[in-house]
Amino acid sequence: MFKKGVEARSHQRLSGADRKKLKRTVRDRFPRASDADIDALLPPKVEIKVSKYQNRVLVYGIEGGFPMFFDIDGRGKEIFPTVYALWKVPDILPSFMLKGGEVSRYVIGGADLMFPGISIPAEGLPSFLAGEAWSVKVPGNPAPIAVGTTTMSCTEALKAGLRGKALKIAHYYGDLLWESVEGPYVPNAGFYEDAVFEDPILSSAQVSDSYDGANDGSNDQLNGIDDKEMGQHVDVADVQSEPSSASVAPIDAGNEIAEEATAHVGDLKLTDDDSVDQSTVEDSQDTHPLSTEDVDTLLEKCLLQALHTTVKDKDLPMPGSTLWSNHVLPCRPSGITLDIKKSSYKKLSKWLQAKCSSGLIRVKEDKYKKESVLLSVNRTHPDYSSFKPEKRQVEEAVKTGVPAVTESRSVKILEVAEIYKPSVHVNPVFASVGADTGELYSALDATDIVFRYVEKENLVKPTDKSIVILDATLCDALFKGAIKKGSMYPTEIHKRDLGAAFVNRMQPHHIVTRGNDSVVRKGGLKTVQIMTERRQVQQWQNYQVRRGWRFWFKAE
Fold it and tell me: What are the CA-CA distances from residue 92 to residues 30, 62, 199, 552 (Å)?
């Protein structure tokens, strides 16, 4: 439904009568939702806007907030909640549970949900009719990832042997409707760009409880988790369809226990022959989880590492959940589970507010999202200045792991990249920040230069950190000669559009590299069009009958 970009024809606020009609439609369409749930999605004292699209789709959302419902036919008969609404009220719809996080790659990739990818609960296949609205969840993660309509009833599904299409997906996490808002976010750290897995915070809490309550060693711990997890699913022999993900859950839980048990073995050294003493392994399994002070120290280190390496000023403001899942968690050491609940702060918002009080960052509470939003980073703070970021282990492995193979392959690989040279339009911006106007820059480097100029001249709008005010130099660099005479020059631009507009005013070049040899050519890369053609070869069969007559027939 939202795979291709479609611009809205109009945006307008709902009147009081239309607001009541929308709430009645939602209440009739989703009987599981209570009045409190509907008020949480459509607050009484907040303006609700509707966006009308050319394909008759209507999208209802909170003004200045997130879309909550969308109507496919525009008549209220096929109205669905968005993932933002499902993250606020997950139980507004019944849900199918996937067999594992790997199946989510197909769902959020745009594919419909098939019956072999659904985990069948112990009580059997739930009852449903064709055309009902259902959501999709991943084991261990309470936040739904998609919503759609059933293609057949449960009776028809059983007759078909639980094969075929179960749910026609209408909207999913990562599609254009999810991206259409200002600052899209994810509900927890289990949401990745190409897949969704269990929430590590919930899973680590469950594993910690099982770890503390075990009395008979690591084997009894794993057996206890097996009994707990297997109690939620039917035995493999009792399911007519493919095996569920219940057998995978104990293995994942056991892996997390092993990660926590080996959290303090960072000082161990391997011998040259990679041999490991068995007693060392047994001692490491008996170690305790990280203390509260250790978790606080690790949080501080991961935050500073993220602020130095991945968090850029052009990406701000940034939701706290995005900062945590996309920046802080990837900076944790390998093999260590980072759980905010095991720190002295207990909550992500309290931790961010504490860092704001120290002056390292500046955050504010978003009253619509109900979460903290990172506004700016104080890069002159003593903690930031004294911290030395570490090189990622992946980069070190590339440099030191297999240099001979990497170098031999790089000689054979032909690489082509677009680069840009400053033009007369943007030269004043480069000169203002001390950049060489005779060099060639990548699009990312050029974007960093224009944002350095914005930071130097303090052009960020005080009331809206996502807007850049255009001074005379920057306005001429972006629009001089491109605006018709008599038209008004713009006075501000959004941060997400600034980089592309600045690069478009530069002279395009491209560099061709093979091994250690490279050559630079003027002009941008030309589009390569690849066309495929399907040919059908007709086969003719030869038949010979009496009297020497021979006939040819085309084989179908």
Answer: 7, 18, 20, 65
Residues 122-154: tens digit of each pLDDT? 888 899 999 999 999 999 999 999 999 999 999
- CB environment 458-486: b (16+ within 10 A), e (fewer): ebbeeeebebbbbeebbbbbbbeeeeeee
447: tokens are 């974007």
Report the run of H or E that residue 421 belongs to, with start and end. Answer: strand 414-421
Task: Calculate the alpha carbon distances from 178 to 68, 106, 145, 183, 256 in Å.
Answer: 11, 17, 11, 10, 31
Give the SS3 label for residue 256.
helix
Q: Write out the DSSP string of 101-118.
A: GGGHHHHTTTPPEEGGGB
Tokens of 361: 């960052």
CA distances from 1 to 169, 322, 401, 481 (A): 8, 25, 45, 40
Tokens representing 99?
């067999």
- What is the pTM assigned to this prediction? 0.42
CA 387 to chain centre: 28
For residues 320 and 188, give the distance between their C-alpha atoms in angstroms, rounded to a whole number.
10
For the segment 376-395, what is each residue's pLDDT rounded down to a tens digit?
A: 999 999 999 999 888 754 33
